[in-house]
């Protein structure tokens, strides 16, 4: 899958280059850039119906350009939807590092008798006095 994307992009660049050349080779009504490529030469090469051939070739190259662009976008989305190997490795390293930094869980030991900390402790109640000032003077 990783090799498909560069091949498709290379094909897209070639199609774009061919599309530019074919559009420039077409003979416009006023002999613009088409004359620069030797309009008489294309007539001799393809016959007298070069405009029909070049028009068809332009249409096919245009369709191929858009199809390749659509396929490239689909392949790119499919290839980038999952984690890359580098992302997987970094994620695994961070998981391993977090496991090392966690403190060890205290081991639960079963004791046969009640432990002193398990019994409820009642808070010390102050002695009752009539007034707070009386408690201070004692």
In words, what does this structure look like?
There is one protein chain. The chain is an all-alpha fold. The protein has a domain at 4-80. It is 61% helix and 0% strand. The chain has five helices and no strands. Helix 1 packs antiparallel against helix 3 (50-80). The longest helix has 31 residues, at 50-80. The termini are far apart. The model has no long low-confidence stretch (mean pLDDT 75).
Topology:
Layout: H1 4-25, H2 39-46, H3 50-80, H4 85-101, H5 132-137
Helix pairs in contact: 1-3
Q: What sort of overall outline do the alpha carbons produce when their principal axes are compared?
A: rod-shaped
Let me know the average pLDDT.
Answer: 75
As a whole number of angstroms, the C-alpha radius of gyration is 42 Å
Helix content bin: 55-70%
Low-confidence segments: none
Distance between the termini: 90 Å
Estimate the strand proportion: under 5%
The SSE order reads HHHHH
What profile does the largest beta sheet have? none
The class by helix and strand makeup works out as mainly alpha
Topology, number of strands:
0
**What is the overall number of helices?**
5
